[in-house]
Amino acid sequence: MSRVIKAILNINPNAEVSIANDDIDTLIWENGTTPIAKADIEAELVNIPTEEEERTAKENLKASAKAKLIAGEALTEDEANVIIGG
Question: Are 55 and 33 members of one domain?
Fold first, then answer.
């Protein structure tokens, strides 16, 4: 899912919108969805991690889970989920 769409859904979880190439200027608001101001979407984008940031976070979570398993410590739910692919 595109970062722009994620930002929009953070603002309005019921929004129906399409986009081309994650370009905010190509948004098409569908099924009567009230458009969200470009500035509001751009402001929300700072809260949406990039693919690189998501990949790094997942790798860090896997490493943490592995270390805890080796040490016999309890895992967090997120750590357990990353191990089983949830």
Answer: no
